[in-house]
Write a structure and sequence with these properties.
Layout lengths: L10 E2 L14 E8 L5 H10 L6 E5 L2 H4 L6 E5 L2 E4 L4 E4 L4 H8 L8 E5 L6 H8 L5 E11 L3 H6 L4 H9 L3 E5 L6 H14 L4 E4 L7 H4 L28 H4 E7 L2 E3 L1 H10 L4 E9 L5 E7 L2 E6 L9 E7 L5 H9 L2 E5 L2
Length: 342
């Protein structure tokens, strides 16, 4: 195997037609990773809306964590969502290998599989599981990153190793939310990524708008024709990084009452409870279902894209060393309204 010199500047690629090389009897699998709040869900929804005739199967740990846009969902069948254009979304829980083996038997078989990992997972570990399944191959490891938060997250004493580990295992880094930073800061971030993830191609974007042809590319194609080909490294081994259980704590708060959602969002973004990510459905004062998302100090409120009959729930994730669950619960309680949700 011939080694390829590392490029001192991360490569930036535009959309090109790089459909996966046909390997008889195999299904290409893209592993989509990235730290909490990087925009993986937004990226997936954009892909599904623009996939054309490509039959894509999306594997997620839980439907509630991915929030496929409601107008893309045609039917629900047990642990499967049937989506527009022949695509499907399946929940696999802890049995990823079993889900992948089941996909081989589907008629028609998917043209491509996307696996959305947890925000605190390493894409290389998931890719290793894919390689154990006959008739499946890893097409690429794509890592989404929040341009406005990435340097801060990578420098964090507790989660920095995890964030950098995700970047170092990527074939493609999708630098999302570039509209939130200045052009000069984006260029500085590109140069930083050239050193932090020299093996990865780079695509800067806003709101997850990445061409499907890029996300469905195959990193196993020859370097001359494939923009996702990694610089060849001595091995595919990865450094040990503390597991999510050691770094993070989480709590799902269920609501039987309505909530002053804007006020709660502002409070969550400014209170020191170790909170780094929050996401969920809440009913506002007038009963409007709202999707609340928080990433660090940034909050976003939008119309709820899923089932309006779902149990209002807010999932909160924080760093273990600062986690104050009691304080967080007390804060949330102060913004509940006495009127029931129904």
């Amino acid at each position: 195997m011939t080694a390829v010199a590392r490029n001192p500047v991360a490569r930036t690629w535009d959309a090109v037609d790089v459909a996966a090389t046909a390997v008889p009897g195999t299904i290409p699998v893209t592993v989509l990773g990235g730290y909490l709040g990087a925009g993986k869900t937004t990226l997936l929804n954009h892909l599904l809306r623009n996939a054309g005739a490509t039959r894509i199967t999306v594997l997620v740990n839980d439907f509630g964590s991915v929030n496929i846009d409601a107008d893309l969902v045609e039917a629900r069948d047990g642990d499967m969502l049937r989506l527009a254009g022949g695509c499907v979304c399946c929940s696999f829980g802890s049995d990823l290998m079993g889900a992948l083996m089941g996909l081989r038997e589907r008629v028609p078989r998917p043209d491509h599989v996307m696996i959305e990992t947890s925000g605190v997972a390493l894409p290389g570990a998931v890719a290793s599981t894919v390689r154990l399944v006959p008739q499946m191959r890893v097409a690429a490891r794509v890592v989404a990153a929040d341009a406005s938060m990435l340097r801060r997250q990578a420098a964090d004493q507790y989660v920095g190793d995890l964030v950098r580990g995700q970047l170092q295992q990527a074939d493609l880094v999708v630098l999302n939310k570039t509209d939130l930073i200045a052009a000069e800061a984006c260029e500085a971030l590109r140069l930083w990524l050239a050193c932090e993830a020299p093996q990865a191609a780079l695509r800067a974007t806003e709101r997850g708008c990445v061409p499907p042809s890029l996300l469905l590319s195959d990193a196993s194609r020859p370097l001359a024709s494939n923009p996702l080909q990694r610089w060849l490294l001595p091995s595919d081994e990865h450094p040990a990084i503390p597991g999510a259980d050691a770094l993070f704590r989480s709590r799902a708060f269920e609501f039987d009452l309505r909530v002053d959602v804007p006020a709660l969002a502002r409070a969550l973004a400014t209170q020191p409870f170790g909170l780094v990510r929050a996401k969920g459905l809440l009913l506002d004062r007038d009963g409007t279902p709202i999707l609340l998302q928080l990433t660090g100090p940034q909050t976003e409120l939008s119309a709820w894209p899923g089932n309006v009959d779902a149990q209002p729930t807010l999932v909160c994730i924080g760093t273990a060393h600062q986690w104050d669950e009691a304080g967080l619960a007390a804060l949330i309680q102060t913004f509940t309204i006495t009127q029931p949700v129904s």
